[in-house]
Amino acid sequence: METEINIVEILKDKPANTKLYSPLFSEVFFSHVSGGYIAVEHHGGTSLFLSSGRFYDYDGSEPLLFPSKEMRDWSKFAWKKGDVLVNKDGDVHIIFERFVDGTYCSFVGKYYLWKENNDTEQFYEKERLLTSDFNKANKEEAQTYINTIEEKLGSKLNRETLEIEKTQPEFKDGDIAFADYGNRQDVFIVSDKTDLSEGYSSFISLDLSSLTLSMGCRISFFKKDLCKLRLATDSEKKQLFDALEKEGKAWDAEKKQIVDLKPKVELKPFDKVLIRDINAERWKASFFSYKEESHYVSIEGRCWRQCIPYEGNEHLLGTTEDVEG
Questions:
Q1: Distance CA 300, CA 304 (A)
Q2: Does any domain span residue 111?
Q3: Cα 81 to chain center, whole Å?
């Protein structure tokens, strides 16, 4: 047996003058609820109805109070902003926002999702639909739908505003991030999370406006202070790496630490060198002459693909070992 709807509970939070309908008086306007009765106003004055919608003092009568002449389903009139609705076939879900007009025959909803056989899918951010085609979804069904649209939109849904709230990303140690303060933008290497307020600490950061590099000093980037926080783009990372290189440093992503760059060697004529063409060859000793675009020329006039200083690499002479670093 169908549970009788308590119309008092539905109307008690509705604003005064909400338009309703009664076959007795045609259009009526909600006034207030008191003592379990519903007071409505109409052209003939004020009348009372029971919580069942029956006329006052006639509890054996048929219900005579409805949302409108065209739409008489109180369970649908009770829909609230943020309720998840499902159509009769069970393949369309949408979030109720508001009724279109005082007939309550159609409504505006957000995040329309149609799925057929868990395969074909259509998604629209806003739709106008017929009230008669939908009912309120159960909790489990509603949560599955919410999870689906949050995954699709990549953020959390605020059920009160029906807006998607962009969540700040979570970074891990070694990630290179971009922080926008509005008047200043920084690129930084994440060290760890901050303790006192939600955010991240860093010992290496670059102010993109002044290209000022900070190393060794802990700087905190708190989410509440930022307009934007995201992973750095390749071009932003390059600016940080270029700044480190000017200081003779580099970021070792595998070790997650700053390392010293080996100084660039500029060979001069008659410098002692080790030479070879391919990795399988043994290193030979020679003297450097000059460099062409794709190879090195030794003092004997021969061309080689690989040429390194002899000093510091003496142990490689006569071996096929590779240069370290």
A1: 11
A2: yes
A3: 23
Q: Which residue has the tokens 């760059």?
A: 261
Q: What are the tens digits of pLDDT across the range 171-205?
A: 889 999 999 998 899 999 999 888 767 889 999 99
Residue 113 CB burial class (10 angstroms; 0-12, 13-18, ≥19): middle
Domain-located, residue 2: no
Helix (H), strand (E), coil (C) string for 53-100? CCECCCCCCCCCCECCCCCCCHHHHCCCCCCEEEECCCCEEEEEEEEC
List helix spans (H) across 167-216.
none
What is the DSSP annotation of 26-46? EEEEEEEEETTEEEEEETTEE
75, 95, 117: which is the final residue of a domain? 75
Please tell me what DSSP assigns to residue 317: B
- Per the structure, the complete domain to which residue 139 belongs is given by 79-165
pLDDT digits (tens, 9 = 90+) for 138-160: 999 999 999 888 888 767 788 88
Q: What is the CATH number of the domain that holds 97?
A: 2.30.30
Q: Please check whether residue 324 lies inside any domain of the structure.
A: no
Task: Burial-class residue 206 by CB neighbours within 10 Å (0-12, 13-18, 19+).
Answer: buried
Interior CA angle at 221 toward 217 and 227, to 5°?
145
Under 8 Å CB-to-CB from 320, ≥6 apart: which residues? 279, 280, 281, 282, 283
Judge residue 96's burial from the number of C-beta atoms within 10 Å of its C-beta, 0-12 exposed, 13-18 middle, 19 or more buried.
buried
Q: Tell me the C-alpha distance between 116 and 236, whole Å.
A: 43
Domain count within the chain: 4
- pLDDT confidence bin for 166, thresholds 50/70/90: low
> Counting Cβ atoms within 10 Å, is residue 6 exposed (0-12), middle (13-18) or buried (19+)?
middle
- Residue 265 in domain: no
